[in-house]
Amino acid sequence: MDKVPAMDLAAFLSSGDRAAVVSELRDEYERICFVVVCGHDLPERLLDRAFA
After folding, report:
1. C-alpha–C-alpha distance, residues 11 and 16, integer Å
2. Residue 16 lies in a domain
3. In which domain, by residue range, is 25 found?
4. 3-state secondary structure of 38
5. How many domains does the chain have?
6. pTM above 0.85, yes or no
7. Residue 34 maps to a domain
8. Which pLDDT score is estimated for 17?
9. I need a surface site. Which of 4, 29, 35, 51 has the fewest CB within 10 A?
10. Alpha-carbon distance 28 to 1, whole Å?
11. In terms of C-beta distances under 8 Å and separation of at least 24 residues, what long-range contacts does 12-16 make, across chains too?
12. 8 has which bridge partners?
């Protein structure tokens, strides 16, 4: 493995293809137990509070 996989949720949020997103997340977690999630549309202030 050269890098941590990134999971972009933007496609899921726009299309609602839940099965494909869940399948991809499951595959990555089974493979390396970690994934970076982006495209989640969470407010920046909420992320700041989470990491404060």
Report:
1. 8
2. yes
3. 6-50
4. strand
5. 1
6. no
7. yes
8. 77
9. 51
10. 12
11. 13/39, 13/40, 13/41
12. 38
